[in-house]
From TrEMBL:
Lineage of the species this protein comes from: Bacteria, Bacillati, Bacillota, Erysipelotrichia, Erysipelotrichales
Pfam family, one: PTS_EIIA_2
Domain PTS EIIA type-2: 1-148
Record's protein name: PTS system galactitol-specific IIA component
InterPro entries membership: PTrfase/Anion_transptr, PTS_EIIA_type-2_dom, PTS_SugarTrans_NitroReg
Matching PANTHER family: PHOSPHOTRANSFERASE SYSTEM MANNITOL_FRUCTOSE-SPECIFIC IIA DOMAIN CONTAINING PROTEIN (PTHR47738:SF3), PTS SYSTEM FRUCTOSE-LIKE EIIA COMPONENT-RELATED (PTHR47738)
Length: 152
C-alpha cells in the first residue's frame, strides 16, 4: 500500500457538510487534495451517507480518486457531536464525535476501509483516540491502522 499520511484537527461544525469541509480544507492546505475534493466528498455524502453507529459514533466521508493528489486521512475531533446520516439506514442519524475524511487515490481504499472498520469496532482504541491530544493523534492513528494491516 502506498504511504498514508495522517492529520488530526479539532473543531466545531454545525452540520455534517461543515465537518467535511473542515477536513477537506486541512487536506488541501497540506497539499493532499485539490479544490474539487471538498465538493466531491459532500456530494458523495448526500448520496451515500457514512455515519457509523459505533461505540464512539463516527463518520468517514470520502470521494472517488479525482481531486486526490496523495493518500491521506484527516481526522476531525468535534467539540460537539454533529448529525450524520447512517451508512446502513439513511433515515437514521448518528451523533458523530469524530470524522475521518479519507483521501485515497488508489486501490488501497478497500483495505484502508477494512482497517478503519476494525478500529471503529474496538471500544478501547476508539476511546483512547478520542481522549488523545490532537498533536499526538496522527502518530497514534497510524500505529493503530498499521497494526490492523499486520494482522491480515
Amino acid at each position: 500500500m502506498s504511504q498514508m499520511k495522517y492529520f488530526a484537527i479539532e473543531g466545531h461544525a454545525k452540520s455534517d457538510f461543515e465537518a467535511i469541509s473542515l477536513c477537506a480544507q486541512k487536506l488541501k492546505k497540506e497539499g493532499y487534495v485539490t479544490d474539487q475534493f471538498e465538493s466531491n466528498c459532500i456530494n458523495r455524502e448526500k448520496q451515500y451517507p457514512t455515519g457509523l453507529p459505533t461505540v464512539v459514533p463516527v463518520a468517514m466521508p470520502h470521494s472517488e480518486a479525482s481531486g486526490v493528489i496523495d493518500n491521506a486521512i484527516c481526522m476531525l475531533k468535534l467539540d460537539q457531536p454533529v448529525d450524520f446520516r447512517r451508512m446502513d439506514d439513511e433515515t437514521q442519524l448518528i451523533n458523530a464525535k469524530m470524522v475521518f475524511n479519507l483521501a485515497l487515490k488508489d486501490t488501497s481504499h478497500m483495505s484502508v476501509l477494512q482497517h478503519l472498520m476494525g478500529l471503529f469496532a474496538d471500544t478501547n482504541k476508539m476511546e483512547d483516540i478520542y481522549n488523545t491530544d490532537v498533536e499526538d493523534l496522527p502518530r497514534k492513528l497510524e500505529a493503530y491502522i498499521n497494526q490492523g494491516e499486520q494482522a491480515d
